[in-house]
Structure formats: structure tokens, C-alpha cells
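Amino acid chain:
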Amino acid sequence: MIRNWRDFVGNIFPSNPEIGEIGSLKLNIWLANITGVPIIGLKKESNNMKLLILVYGICTSFLVTFVYTGFEIYDLILNLDDLDKITQNICLSLTHVTGTVKIANLFYRYKDLKMVIDKLKYVTKTYTKSQKQLETFQNGELENKIVLSIYIGIVGITGILAMIVLFMHPESVAGEIFPYRVILPSWLPLFWQLIYMGMSVSIFAIQIVSVDYLNVTIINQIRFQLNILNLSFDELTIAAKTPVNKKKEHAKALEVWKGEPLARLNSIIEHHCLLREIRQLTEDIFCQPVLLQFFTSLMIFAMTGFQATVRTGGSNGAVLIYFYCGCIFCQLFVYCWFGNEVFEQSKTLATSGFNSSWYLFDRRYGKSLVIYLTNAQCPFIFTAGGFMGLSLPSFAGILSKSYSYIALLRQIYGR
């Protein structure tokens, strides 16, 4: 049963490490395209398909990403004297403004993003060779797809629930409370206002998921590539088969490995250097948008927490506030979790290198290993704009600060 389930997930945009095909990236890009983020050229597409994706993406992004956000900001300006309305509006407006910045950054850094994906494809097909390495790659791909599906599911359920509430209580929800705190043109019929509100909020939410998770997918690719790199040292660890007190077995082992250990170590060093380049490029592309995301998440946690405390359980928007807070929680958590996992995985590189049977090989191997171990001491760290590491302690810190802001807002509201 479990095997069939794993096969089913694996067959959704299947991966093929032999040719460097990464299914989770293809799934992520497909999701972005169908929600109106026209990322083209990162996977094989015909010219007609590229044109269709581009036209569809431009139209969708203009109507949803820019126009609807403009209506939200207009509503915010008109209600600056009402704390309740401001906190409702800021939740969605901050999310949408941040999403717009992320999408714009994606196109601005398109060449660098393509370079990162090409390098990932290269390291996948070049260094994923042994059975253990293939299993590690497939497990990592499965993890990427499952987490993305869960993330989309949480956001999708929230969007569907919001639309149900919108159509059930249009007079008290449309343009009035979270998550539809917005002012639309009065000449637009109410039915089309409801359609526009519901579709815009839902589509924009999936757009943000696809852009966020593209970064997370690359981070997790680096994590299990680091694991694959560690597994490469298994072939250079023959101490268990060659006891120190048996000179004949040592001589035989040295004869078998003559010339091979250094070539294998050089391959590992090249793999490590490429992963460092990919990490640096990924950090350069996404660190500023992630910093903006951390700042807005702090604000949104505070605003949604405040709204949850001032609204009664039976109000139309109360349940949506809890669901929305869960979406922001997941958005921030996946960044911090996978960033933390990369950091922890990178700390094992030096240990794996030192545990190889270096004492059986020549001096050139030893010198190269020393250089590798020196470089491996520097961990792989992803940051939010260089100010805060993507880690679980950072996530806990944001939750702690959010609680302080909730208390402050409650105090102001009480007055």
C-alpha cells in the first residue's frame, strides 16, 4: 500500500537523475504557470506554449496581482482612522505587496535562476550514481512533492472556505471584513464583484505558494545533494574490510585502489564546490524577498492574532482568520525548516571526509583531503537579507515577537 502510494506520487512529474530531470522543479514551475506567473524557458516547451503561457500570465497578473492589490491599498487609505479595519486590510495587503515583489524579483533575476536550475540538473546527473544516492535523490523528490501538496492543500482549503463564506453572506463579507477588506468600483455588478474578489484572493494565494516553494525546492535540493555528497565517501571507506594489523590485506587494498581514490576525491571536491556556488546564487536571488517575507510575517501574525482575539467565534471572518494564520505559519515554517536542515546536513561533511580510509592512500590524496576538510568547515547557511538565518530558532523568535505585538494592539484597542 505504502509502496503504491510512493509510486503514485513519484509518477507525478517523474524525475530521472540519469539525464538530470528534476520532477519537483517541473511541478513547481507548472503550478506557477497555471496560476498566472509566466516562468518560461526553465523546462522544455514549444514556442506556441511559451506564447500562450506568456499572454495568459500577463493578463492574470495584471488583473489579480496589480489591480486588485491597488483596490486593497485604496481601501486602506480610506480607513486609516479605524484600527479594526486597518489590521484586517494590512493582513492581505502586506501579503499581496510582498507577493508582487517576489514575482517581480523572479523575473528580474531570471538568468540567475536559470543558471541555478541548470547547475542542479548537472550535479544530479553527474554525481547521483550509487544505489544509495539514487534512493536519497528519489526520497528527497518525494519529500518536495508531498510538502508542496500539503502547503497547497492548506492554502486551497482556506481559499475555498473564504469563497463559501463570501457567497453565503455577501452583504456582511464582500468588501467589509477579512479576507475581502477591499473597495471595488461601484459600477461593477455585485455578482461580478464577488467573483472577482473570490478568484483574485485564491489565485494570488497559489501564486505566492508557487514562488515561495520554488525557493524552498532549491534549498531542499541542496540538502539532499549534500547527503549524496556524504554517501560518495562510502566508496573511500574500506577500513572495515582492511584491518590495520594485516599488512597483506593493506597491500592488496592499496593495489586495488591505486590511482582511483584521488580521482574520486577530486570528484567529491568538484561536487562540493558546485553546491557552494548554487547556494550562493540562491542566496543572492532570494535573500531580500525572504527578508521582506520575514518582516511581513511578523506583522501578519500580530494582525491576525489581534483579529482572532477581538472577534467572537461565531463571526463570519473568525474561522477564516485562523485558517489564514495557519497559511502564514506554513509559509514561514517551510523556509525555516529546510534552511535549518541544510545547515545541519552541511555540518556532517567534514566528519564524512575524515572517516574515509585516508591513511591507506598516498600523500596527494591526504593533501587534497585537508583542503576539502578546510572548506567543509564553512556551513551552508541561508539568510533573510543577511540579517537572520533561516532556522528553527528564527521561527520561534518571530512567533515570540508577534505575541508581544498582539498584546500591544490589544492594549491600544482597549483604550
